[in-house]
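Researcher: We plan to redesign the surface later, but first we want a full-length starting point. Tokens attached.
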């Protein structure tokens, strides 16, 4: 099915400019609400997270209006990383998860990403069906069936506990100095807190969002800021996230930046040595460097390529039974998929 509104990762554009207007967000919310209420009776829930962009307030309210008009009950998480929405959607028995974010884009942009009840991105077919509903218009619920909305104050903490639970039992980061660059985005609280609770000495960068400085001179698209902090503080490692904390760049103790292809190569080789890499296969998109493919081939491993978009990587991993994959973004702000679940929502590495 052809999609006009949805791109490779939801709907995205400049705030207050088509298609990213409050009116369109309301229509998208109503259409998504109707789509996910088609065959199920009873309570219908949707969880909504956002990053730190000023326009997030506008889209949060517009989506809530559209969703509740079709009888969906909305659970508002506030600023949380995108993976938190993917994790909390099934955990909270929700029919739908929505993340309001334009990821690594500048503050004037915003976007709407969808997750199904299993915590994974929607299929092309589901997005096409929602587009049809947007174009046709949606009949609202009766006055007695309008949905409710409420704030969930502990959503971020639930996510943080899941992330810490993915860390090897008994391992601590005591004595390790870590620079964490949160891009003034969604993880500005969660990431430093998780690292501190695991024992690290944390040097935070990009943790003072003001609604307009997300990804500005920091984060995964501008790793030089964190690299300078690593060298200045004598840190063991630097971690750069993007605005919604589903992408990562790593920095070593000398300030040298490693991109996603290098990180995936390291992990694939290590997992293969430990007999953990299922099928001897790493999944990545057509944007990954040929050097990654050659590196794997020389070690008897293979690279399974997909179309551009993390959900295509995840779909390939699920269908092939493989347990490691990732994507390379156009700005080299990269995403990793782990062996349990990932989708922008299921613990990213690092969390």
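Model: Full-length starting sequence:
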């Amino acid at each position: 099915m052809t999609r006009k509104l949805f791109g490779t990762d939801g709907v995205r554009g400049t705030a207050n400019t088509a298609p990213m207007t409050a009116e369109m967000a309301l229509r998208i919310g109503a259409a998504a609400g109707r789509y996910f209420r088609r065959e199920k009776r009873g309570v219908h829930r949707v969880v909504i997270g956002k990053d730190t962009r000023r326009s997030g307030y506008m889209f949060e309210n517009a989506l809530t209006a559209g969703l509740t008009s079709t009888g969906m009950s909305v659970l508002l998480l506030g600023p949380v990383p995108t993976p938190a929405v993917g994790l909390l959607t099934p955990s909270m028995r929700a029919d739908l998860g929505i993340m309001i974010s334009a990821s690594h884009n500048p503050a004037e942009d915003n976007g709407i990403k969808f997750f199904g009840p299993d915590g994974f991105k929607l299929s092309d077919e589901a997005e096409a069906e929602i587009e049809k509903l947007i174009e046709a218009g949606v009949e609202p619920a009766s006055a007695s069936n309008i949905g409710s909305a409420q704030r969930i104050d502990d959503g971020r903490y639930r996510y943080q506990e899941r992330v810490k639970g993915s860390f090897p039992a008994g391992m601590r980061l005591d004595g390790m100095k870590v620079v964490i660059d949160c891009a003034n985005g969604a993880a500005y609280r969660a990431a430093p807190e998780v690292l501190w609770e695991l024992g690290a000495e944390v040097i935070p960068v990009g943790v003072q969002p003001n609604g307009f400085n997300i990804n500005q001179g920091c984060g995964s698209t501008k790793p030089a800021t964190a690299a300078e902090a690593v060298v200045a503080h004598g840190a063991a490692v630097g971690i750069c996230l993007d605005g919604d904390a589903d992408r990562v760049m790593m920095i070593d103790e000398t300030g040298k930046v490693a991109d996603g292809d290098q990180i995936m190569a390291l992990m694939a080789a290590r997992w293969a040595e430990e007999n953990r890499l299922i099928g001897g296969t790493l999944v990545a998109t057509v944007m990954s460097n040929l050097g990654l493919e050659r590196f794997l081939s020389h070690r008897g491993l293979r690279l399974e390529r997909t179309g551009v978009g993390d959900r295509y990587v995840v779909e390939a991993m699920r269908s092939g039974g493989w347990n490691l994959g990732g994507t390379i973004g156009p700005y080299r702000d990269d995403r990793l998929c782990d062996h349990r679940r990932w989708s922008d929502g299921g613990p990213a590495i690092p969390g």
